[in-house]
Amino acid sequence: MSSLPFRYVVFSAIMREIPRYVIYDVPTVNIGKAVLEVRKNMGIVPIITYLCVVVFVVSVVTRFVKLSTLPVHLRWEVYPVPHEKGKGHYGGSYLEEYEWWTKKRETSKLAELKVMIPEIILLAGVWEHNKKHWFRTFPFHFGLYLLGGLIALLAVGGVAGAFGMDVGPDGGAVGQVIHYLTLALGYTGLVLALIGSLALLVRRAFNADYREYTTAADFFNLVFFIAALVVALASRFTADLHFEGLRGFFQGLLTLNGSAIPQLGMLQSLEIVLASLLAAYIPLTHMSHFFTKWFTYHDVRWSDEPNLEGSGFDEKIAKQLESTVGWSAPHIAGDGRKKNWIDVVTSSGREE
Description:
This protein folds into two domains: 261 residues, Transmembrane di-heme cytochromes, Chain C (Fumarate Reductase Cytochrome B subunit, Up-down Bundle); 34 residues, no CATH class.
């Protein structure tokens, strides 16, 4: 019998428990006095949000540290490398220079940004190589970017409200700007992300080429997004048309003031819980490419730092060569992790 990955088991358990708190408000038992006080003052929905934020931050930091400390990768030697000042546009390299190791390298961060910004925001690589897919994935990703902006605006609006600012159509200039930007980013982001996720789900379900390498996890991820987005839109049109309830929720959340949080209906509670769980879940999956892509480009694809004396590479490589070899192929002769890479490359390869 096959078993599901641990993260799905955990999330299934959470999803089974949440409804009884959100809908029936069953009192919390067998937990510390401090948590009981927070539960009493703020309710279970903010507690779930706090926990999910902790999971998100810890997951991102853990993965970032892990990637930052990985062994030195193999050089790709793929050009052009955008940061090559004066050479990137034609695929050149500092290695063209006579006695390049004696000269100071010139790089351009601006040239990197000219490539990275269109890639991140507009998915330029997808547009270049797979336009049909771009029309499905771009609305999804751009919608998520807008929803990220929505979260920032709700946070700013919540804090501003805590300091007495009227955030709304009848407020001052700043309050009106926050209000109308929130509406624009919120509704546009929700609609675009929903259209994109539905289009991607249909593509993966009914296109034979995509279906071959689509896993159950891919379907689960898209259905998770669709559910959260549908509930969010339903909450907007039935209970919180102008995001005032969400802004109040953020105000209470950021100021630790339970009295600032408005009374939440079942749909609003479910919206917040699903969004919180989704935020906690994303960095646990391959969808963490929203920040790991930095490593893919800068530490792998574009890494052309030379191994010169004093650069630090020699120490890293020496340490890496001491790692034992786990490959079982006889021509590698790792001997079941009894040999390190130095032993392997210096052996004759002949049996004694």
